[in-house]
Amino acid sequence: MRVGDIMSGRPIVVGERSGDVRRLMETGHVRHLPVVEEGRLTGLWIATGDGPLVMLAPDRVHETDAAADAADALDALIGGAEAVLVWDEGRPAGVLTRSDLRALVRAALDHGLGLRHPRAIVIRVSGPAGCGISTLLRRTLGLFDRVDAAVVQGNAAAAGEVASLAAGRGLDAPGIDRRIGLRAAIDRLAGAQLILIDDRDEPDESVGDIGEDLRAVAVRAAGLPGLPPTRLDGVAAVVATRADEAGEMDTEHALRALRAARPGLHTFAVAAGRDDRGLEAWVRWLESCAFRGRG
């Protein structure tokens, strides 16, 4: 961004022999008046509340041009410059003051800019009862070391408050199946980089879009061969749970067949109920999704 994009244009300037400077400030609703003689800055008048006007030396002003990097001008103000005077073809074209800097910061905050994590990545994990989604996500939450994550229980009996879990935050939100419910949950989990939704569905239930960024399906490893192809529409990942209860070769063969049928599909075989076999790859994929969303 250029200085010209954020400066206050058409500044009021005075000469060294200009009179009634205070009236000019009051009329122009400004507190800074650059003093310019023969195309050169020689000083800066500033108003000091109800006190007298003060003339500062030109070294208290950062001088630049409209095409310069705006960040340098803002750094000058933060570093102690009283004002920034912007030149264009030998003439004063604009000014920047700390009031302008405060206005920029307020506008950025109003738009959610400058937050540590501007927007959470939401991944909805759905699957039939008994496939172990809750256990999977609880174990998953404990393995994040670079991501601030939270779990939302979309199948809770009643809504609850945000709770601190052993390795993150949790929220009971039975209305999460509606977009308004998702937005409310995100607002209550402010600061999270990654939100995982535990959304158990019935065997024949169609999983619609509620505004999540990505969707994953959890299914018991033994049930992979019977997974309907339409169940993977719009799905980014499949997690075969309870892999320790199925044959390793059979599970890998079934996952390989899914990847062949759905190029780009990510598959994971985990045994969260007994050990962390395969869980690490699942966690790293989730972290990569969160980092891509932040970038």
Structure write-up:
The protein is α/β, with parallel strands linked by helices and 295 residues long. The chain folds into two domains: 3-110, CBS-domain (Roll); 121-294, 3-Layer(aba) Sandwich (Rossmann fold), CATH 3.40.50. It is built from eight helices and 15 strands. It has helices at residues 3-6, 21-28, 70-78, 98-110, 133-141, 179-188, 248-261, 279-294; strands at residues 8-9, 32-37, 40-46, 54-56, 61-65, 83-88, 91-97, 121-127, 149-153, 163-165, 168-172, 194-200, 214-220, 237-241, 266-269. The chain has an eight-stranded mixed beta sheet, with helices on both faces. A four-stranded mixed beta sheet has the order 1-7-6-5. α7 links the parallel β14 (237-241) and β15. The longest helix has 16 residues, at 279-294. The protein is rod-shaped and about 90 Å long. The model is unreliable at 202-207 (pLDDT under 50).
Write the layout of secondary structure elements.
Elements (H helix, E strand, L loop, with lengths): L2 H4 L1 E2 L11 H8 L3 E6 L2 E7 L7 E3 L4 E5 L4 H9 L4 E6 L2 E7 H13 L10 E7 L5 H9 L7 E5 L9 E3 L2 E5 L6 H10 L5 E7 L13 E7 L16 E5 L6 H14 L4 E4 L9 H16 L1
Parallel strand pairs: 5-6, 8-12, 8-13, 9-11, 9-12, 13-14, 14-15
Antiparallel strand pairs: 1-7, 2-3, 3-4, 6-7, 10-11
